[in-house]
């Protein structure tokens, strides 16, 4: 892949921009005007897990049209912000452009090619009016799962806390040149990248942790390590994972991951503030729909009760409303 664009200058977008710039690809970061100005002036300041700090010059713009057509576009925005990125995506895309949404939770394309009743279903929690389904061609999608912990500290300043694994796969389970190209690109950047013929299983394995720890951290203000150590929150996290596993299994997903092993892996990250906790503290909208509500929606479709998931969703939504709200009481 010769030309790639990264839409979104949050923690993940900046990490990808800084690392992928070391590859032969021509990388353009598309950001909001204020962030584009700061990053254009100062570059991206990246602190590594080993404590090394570097400043990386980046090609950045707030005008997607000026960047031209790309071989791949990485959408590094929250799931609820994807609709707002569609104009930028259209400016960056040609008929062969691979589209890689780097989002947490259940993606809007999840029902694509699945058996009924899922196959014809449209996820209201993440794509309520079908905008994403209509706007992004299914044959250009590359599904992704990011196993990486990154914290942001202002425009273009990030701390890479832990891990650097990425999984990519075609939503229809095919071996495609787009998936192979993205895996090769990330490998050249020094990431641990692999392709998957069952990307939905990988999504659920990652979602276990997001579902369990993101909303609990937003509710309590605790880091991931603290949530794993405390007996009460550890029990709630395990129950959330068990409900999610039951939904996934009813939908035909089989995962070799073990819940206790997943919790232990989260505990090993230590005092990391989850992305939802970072958003709560910064007054940003929370990823409740894709990470929590979508699991409950799929559970209802599959006939699997998810009482703890629904309880936690209601609590974190109330917490967000109490903090100050935008649409539906959630911070904008």
TrEMBL record:
Domain Ketopantoate reductase N-terminal: residue ranges: 4-170
Domain Ketopantoate reductase C-terminal: 198-318
Keywords in alphabetical order: Pantothenate biosynthesis
InterPro entries per record: 6-PGluconate_DH-like_C_sf (IPR008927), 6PGD_dom2 (IPR013328), KPA_reductase (IPR013752), KPR-Related (IPR051402), KPR_N (IPR013332), NAD(P)-bd_dom_sf (IPR036291)
Keyword Hydrolase attributed: no
Catalytic activity, EC: 1.1.1.169
Pathway participation: Cofactor biosynthesis; (R)-pantothenate biosynthesis; (R)-pantoate from 3-methyl-2-oxobutanoate: step 2/2
Principal EC category: oxidoreductase
Catalytic function, reaction form: (R)-pantoate + NADP(+) = 2-dehydropantoate + NADPH + H(+)
SUPFAM superfamilies found in the cross-reference section: 6-phosphogluconate dehydrogenase C-terminal domain-like, NAD(P)-binding Rossmann-fold domains
Protein name (Swiss-Prot/TrEMBL): 2-dehydropantoate 2-reductase
Record organism: Skermanella cutis
């Amino acid at each position: 892949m010769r030309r790639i664009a990264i839409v979104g200058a949050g923690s993940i977008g900046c990490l990808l921009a800084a690392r992928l710039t070391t590859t032969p690809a021509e990388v353009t970061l598309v950001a909001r005007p204020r962030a584009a100005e700061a990053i254009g002036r100062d570059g991206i300041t990246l602190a590594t897990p080993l404590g090394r700090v570097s400043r990386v010059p980046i090609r950045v713009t707030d005008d997607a049209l000026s960047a031209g057509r790309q071989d791949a576009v990485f959408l590094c925005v929250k799931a609820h912000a994807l609709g707002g990125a569609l104009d930028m995506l259209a400016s960056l895309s040609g008929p062969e452009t691979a589209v890689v949404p780097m989002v947490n939770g259940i993606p809007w394309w999840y029902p694509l090619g699945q058996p009924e009743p899922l196959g014809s279903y449209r996820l209201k929690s993440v794509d309520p009016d079908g905008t994403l389904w209509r706007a992004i061609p299914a044959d250009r999608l590359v599904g992704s799962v990011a196993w990486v912990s990154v914290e942001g500290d202002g425009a273009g300043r990030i701390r890479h806390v832990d891990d650097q694994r990425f999984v990519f796969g075609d939503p229809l389970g095919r071996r495609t040149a787009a998936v192979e190209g993205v895996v090769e690109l990330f490998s050249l950047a020094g990431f641990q990248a692999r392709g998957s013929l069952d990307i939905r299983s990988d999504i659920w394995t990652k979602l276990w942790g997001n579902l369990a720890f993101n909303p609990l951290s937003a509710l309590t203000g605790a880091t991931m390590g603290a949530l794993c150590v405390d007996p009460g929150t550890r029990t709630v996290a395990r129950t959330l994972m068990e409900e999610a596993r039951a939904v996934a299994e009813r939908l035909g997903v089989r995962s070799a991951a073990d819940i206790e092993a997943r919790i232990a892996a989260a505990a090993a990250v230590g005092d990391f503030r989850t992305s939802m906790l970072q958003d709560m503290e910064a007054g940003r909208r929370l990823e409740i729909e894709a990470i929590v509500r979508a699991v409950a929606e799929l559970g209802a479709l599959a006939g699997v009760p998810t009482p703890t998931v629904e309880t936690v969703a209601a609590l974190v939504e109330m917490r967000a409303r109490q903090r100050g709200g935008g649409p539906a009481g959630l911070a904008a």
